[in-house]
Every structure is written in C-alpha cells, then in structure tokens.
Amino acid sequence: MTAGAAEEARDTAALLMRVTEQTRQNFEAVAARFELTTAQARALLALESDAPMRALAEHLRCDASNVTGIADRLQDRGLVTRVPSGTDRRVKLLAPTDAGRELRAALRAAMLQASPVMVSLDANERATLRALLAKASVFPPPDGHTRAPQ
Question: Using an 8 Å Cβ cutoff, are 146 and 70 in contact?
Fold first, then answer.
C-alpha cells in the first residue's frame, strides 16, 4: 500500500468511526428520552413480531441470560409480554404489546431525526452510502470468519 493509500484508508476509517460514534451517542440519547437503556431500545426495535428470547439474544449479540433482564424490564413497563411457543413448550416468545409497538414507532421516528446520516445526506447520498456499506460489510474480518450482513 502506498503512503497516499494508507493515509486515505486512515482518513476514511476515522470518518467512519466518527459517524459511528455520533450515531451511537445519538441512539443512547434518544433511548434515554424514552427512559430506555440502549439494550432495551435495541430489543424493542428488534421485536417486529413474537420472537424467541434466544433469537433476540443472538440479534443483540449477548448471552440469553442478559435478555431475561431486558425482557423483565420491558415487561414491567408493559411493552412486551412473554408467551409460550406454539411449537415448543420449553421456549418463551417475547411479544410486543400495543404500547410496545407505539413506543417502537416513536423511537424509530426520533432516531431518524437524530441520525447524522439522515440529517446530513440526501436520499441519493444515503442510497450510495447504503450500497457501499453493504459491499464493505461482506469483507472477511481479520479472524478469517465470514459474517453475513445483519
């Protein structure tokens, strides 16, 4: 790699990290406005429909025992309920309640208003960025294990 290419790579990585950090901070602030932790907000956003707690743990990339605590707090607020799986009695599903779906919609709307990508880029620029990020997201990580885009 040439010196110019190395500098370009560093600059690009730094900009990507800056946008990522700003997005993370904005997400935390939006979640806090709704009196949610980031984990609770991510869980609520992931629950489009009833989902096994294990699947939610995989989505959140955390241990299933952590999801139990997240689910407890969301359930205490009336945002989700636990329902038995229709196919496996051992499995509990998390189901968003009407209040959970309403809060999820409000959370999404607030996140869009706080997103540096949504605020700073027009529709064409966002489409280009999305395509570039999708392309880069399939690049094998340093450990050599290919991860599918989420």
Answer: no
User: Does 146 score more than 70 pLDDT?
Assistant: no
Q: What is the pTM of this model?
A: 0.80
CA 53/CA 119 separation, integer angstroms: 34
CATH number of the structural domain spanning residue 46: 1.10.10.10
Q: What is the DSSP string of 96-137?
A: E-HHHHHHHHHHHHHHHHH-HHHHHS-HHHHHHHHHHHHHHH
Confidence band for 98, pLDDT divided at 50, 70 and 90: very high
| Domain ranges, residue 115 | 20-119
Q: For the sheet containing 80-84, what is the strand order?
A: 51-52, 92-96, 80-84
Residue 141 lies in a domain: no
Residue 54: inside a domain, yes or no? yes
